Amino acid sequence: METTVILLKPDCLAAAKAGEVIGRFEAAGFVIRGCKMMQLTSDLLREHYSHLLQLPFYPEIEGFMMSRPVIAMAIAGDNVIERVRDLLGPTNSTKAPKGTIRGDLGKDVMHNVVHASDGLETAAAELKRFFADGELFDIPAG
Ligand code: IDP
Ligand code: MG
Fold first, then answer.
1. pLDDT at 128
2. Does the 2-130 domain belong in CATH 1.20.1330.10?
């Protein structure tokens, strides 16, 4: 059983779509192991998006991600990392098929509603980055 890290981004909360997005994860059978609201900081984002730091639009991404608090979640299930990425669709919302979260709710490549871990190693690193011991629970499905 894998666990992945989700961030409901500022555009998701601004559009009052948190419930819809969480509902899609619950409908897919995933179990919520952790959930909290947080104001992201520049330091945390520079670590989280270290693969984008050199890009000219990095400051815009940081500004967007700090523009209001986000909801961080840890959700678990079989193959959840890949399956959640499939539910999201590609990074660019304008290229995401209808029926995916980004295709239905996203605006463009930056305003794309949800972050999700992209592999086993990043999921492990992100769990440590966003959740302290005691903030993650082992909850049986069903
Ligand atoms: P991902 O969120 O689909 O894993 P990443 O390449 O890891 O995509 O990029 C992280 C976030 O940075 C994206 O979700 C998006 O918000 C933003 N981003 C990525 N590429 C661009 C771009 O070309 N222009 C503006 N923002 C971008
Ligand atoms: Mg990514």
1. 98
2. no
